[in-house]
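Lecture 7 notes: from sequence to structure.

We start with a single chain of 165 residues. Read the sequence below before looking at the structure.
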Amino acid sequence: MEFVHLAAEYVFEGFGYFALGVSLLFSAFERRHSVHAQQVGNQIAFTRNHREIWTAILNDPELSRILKPNADLSAQPLTVKEDFHVKFLFLHLHSTFTAGKKGMFVPSQHVPKEIADFLTRPIAWAVWEQFRKWQDDDFVAFVENAFRDHGEPDAKPKPLPRLLQ
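Now the structure, written as tokens:
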């Protein structure tokens, strides 16, 4: 009788370990699914914010110069509105960069090319020259490596003196 009791104990103990293993696998699967759902949600939020920032540039004539590859800042200095709007773009990029580093977001593989293209514009470069001083080293390296690796040769405008105090 003791043998049956001992065997039953081992069977129930084995069943308990099996149930624990199944629940751990289920938890891991659920966690992975949850992380993926959060990444998708973050992608939607970042896309919405990206669209709002760029829509403002397209809809506001006072910001249209930001995208001009031949904007002459010595003839027409940077405006406060342009300065702040480009800073908003860099802050948005920094948020995206940080979320990507923490695995909360999977950025597009084309982001470095977009950064390089944007920095070829004189207004973007003028703002970046000042803005970069206040950023984390890894973010500055990310942006400047993107420009170096994907920018056109000799595309970078000459550094300008700060036109806006």
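Residues 2-59 form the longest helix (58 residues). Keep this in mind for problem set 3.
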